[in-house]
Design a protein that fits this description.
alpha+beta, 121 residues, 4-stranded mixed β-sheet, 2 helices, globular
Length: 121
Protein backbone atom coordinates (compact mmCIF):
# COMPACT_ATOMS: atom_id res chain seq x y z
CA UNK A 1 0.00 0.00 0.00
CA UNK A 2 1.20 3.52 -0.70
CA UNK A 3 0.75 4.99 2.76
CA UNK A 4 -0.40 4.31 6.29
CA UNK A 5 -3.15 6.94 6.05
CA UNK A 6 -6.55 5.25 6.36
CA UNK A 7 -8.69 5.34 3.23
CA UNK A 8 -11.67 6.35 5.36
CA UNK A 9 -10.92 10.07 4.97
CA UNK A 10 -12.15 9.93 1.36
CA UNK A 11 -15.94 9.91 1.01
CA UNK A 12 -16.82 6.17 1.17
CA UNK A 13 -19.16 6.50 -1.83
CA UNK A 14 -16.29 7.85 -3.95
CA UNK A 15 -13.80 5.33 -2.55
CA UNK A 16 -16.14 2.46 -3.43
CA UNK A 17 -16.27 3.58 -7.06
CA UNK A 18 -12.51 3.99 -7.63
CA UNK A 19 -10.69 1.31 -9.60
CA UNK A 20 -7.11 1.47 -8.37
CA UNK A 21 -3.93 -0.13 -9.68
CA UNK A 22 -2.30 -2.93 -7.68
CA UNK A 23 -0.37 -0.31 -5.70
CA UNK A 24 -3.55 1.58 -4.76
CA UNK A 25 -3.15 4.47 -7.20
CA UNK A 26 -5.17 6.12 -9.96
CA UNK A 27 -3.69 8.33 -12.67
CA UNK A 28 -4.67 11.98 -12.27
CA UNK A 29 -4.61 14.20 -15.33
CA UNK A 30 -4.26 17.93 -14.66
CA UNK A 31 -5.91 20.14 -17.28
CA UNK A 32 -6.04 23.94 -17.49
CA UNK A 33 -9.68 24.69 -16.72
CA UNK A 34 -10.24 27.54 -19.19
CA UNK A 35 -8.18 26.47 -22.22
CA UNK A 36 -8.39 22.67 -22.04
CA UNK A 37 -4.59 22.42 -22.18
CA UNK A 38 -3.37 19.08 -20.77
CA UNK A 39 -0.70 19.97 -18.23
CA UNK A 40 0.59 16.84 -16.54
CA UNK A 41 -0.09 13.36 -15.22
CA UNK A 42 0.34 12.53 -11.55
CA UNK A 43 -0.79 9.74 -9.26
CA UNK A 44 -3.29 9.81 -6.42
CA UNK A 45 -4.33 7.37 -3.75
CA UNK A 46 -7.48 7.84 -1.68
CA UNK A 47 -5.85 10.32 0.70
CA UNK A 48 -4.34 12.43 -2.09
CA UNK A 49 -7.74 12.61 -3.76
CA UNK A 50 -9.38 13.51 -0.45
CA UNK A 51 -6.86 16.31 0.12
CA UNK A 52 -7.33 17.57 -3.44
CA UNK A 53 -11.11 17.67 -3.02
CA UNK A 54 -11.04 19.35 0.39
CA UNK A 55 -8.14 21.82 0.16
CA UNK A 56 -8.58 23.21 -3.35
CA UNK A 57 -4.92 22.40 -4.14
CA UNK A 58 -3.70 19.36 -6.09
CA UNK A 59 -2.08 16.75 -3.89
CA UNK A 60 -0.31 13.81 -5.50
CA UNK A 61 1.43 10.65 -4.33
CA UNK A 62 5.10 10.53 -5.33
CA UNK A 63 5.96 6.99 -6.37
CA UNK A 64 9.69 7.74 -6.26
CA UNK A 65 9.74 9.51 -2.88
CA UNK A 66 6.86 7.53 -1.36
CA UNK A 67 5.24 10.66 0.05
CA UNK A 68 2.50 13.17 -0.65
CA UNK A 69 3.32 16.40 -2.42
CA UNK A 70 1.20 19.45 -3.00
CA UNK A 71 1.85 20.96 -6.41
CA UNK A 72 3.58 24.30 -5.96
CA UNK A 73 4.63 24.02 -2.32
CA UNK A 74 8.32 24.15 -3.25
CA UNK A 75 8.21 25.63 -6.79
CA UNK A 76 5.45 28.21 -6.38
CA UNK A 77 3.78 26.71 -9.48
CA UNK A 78 0.47 26.07 -7.79
CA UNK A 79 -2.54 24.22 -9.15
CA UNK A 80 -5.82 25.66 -7.87
CA UNK A 81 -8.58 23.10 -8.26
CA UNK A 82 -11.66 24.19 -10.24
CA UNK A 83 -13.34 20.77 -10.80
CA UNK A 84 -12.65 17.06 -10.35
CA UNK A 85 -14.22 14.20 -12.32
CA UNK A 86 -13.81 10.45 -12.64
CA UNK A 87 -13.67 8.89 -16.08
CA UNK A 88 -16.39 6.44 -17.17
CA UNK A 89 -14.57 3.44 -15.66
CA UNK A 90 -13.56 5.28 -12.45
CA UNK A 91 -9.93 4.32 -13.08
CA UNK A 92 -8.64 7.82 -13.82
CA UNK A 93 -9.21 11.28 -12.41
CA UNK A 94 -9.41 14.54 -14.35
CA UNK A 95 -8.56 17.60 -12.29
CA UNK A 96 -9.35 20.91 -13.94
CA UNK A 97 -7.04 23.51 -12.45
CA UNK A 98 -5.87 27.06 -12.70
CA UNK A 99 -2.13 26.51 -13.19
CA UNK A 100 0.21 29.22 -11.90
CA UNK A 101 3.53 29.04 -13.73
CA UNK A 102 4.99 25.88 -15.22
CA UNK A 103 3.29 22.54 -14.64
CA UNK A 104 6.35 20.46 -15.53
CA UNK A 105 9.32 20.01 -13.20
CA UNK A 106 11.57 20.90 -16.19
CA UNK A 107 10.12 24.42 -16.29
CA UNK A 108 7.97 23.83 -19.39
CA UNK A 109 4.35 24.97 -19.34
CA UNK A 110 3.19 21.35 -19.71
CA UNK A 111 4.85 17.96 -19.40
CA UNK A 112 3.94 17.36 -23.04
CA UNK A 113 5.74 20.33 -24.65
CA UNK A 114 9.22 18.96 -25.25
CA UNK A 115 8.88 15.57 -26.94
CA UNK A 116 6.29 15.74 -29.72
CA UNK A 117 6.47 12.59 -31.86
CA UNK A 118 6.25 12.70 -35.68
CA UNK A 119 3.10 11.39 -37.34
CA UNK A 120 2.85 9.39 -40.55
CA UNK A 121 6.31 7.86 -40.50
Amino acid sequence: MTSSVPASSLDPAVAARLRRSADGLVPAIAQQYDTGEVLMLGWMDDEALHRTLTTGRCTYWSRSRQEYWVKGDTSGHVQYVKAVALDCDADAVLVKVDQVGAACHTGDRTCFDADVLPLGQ
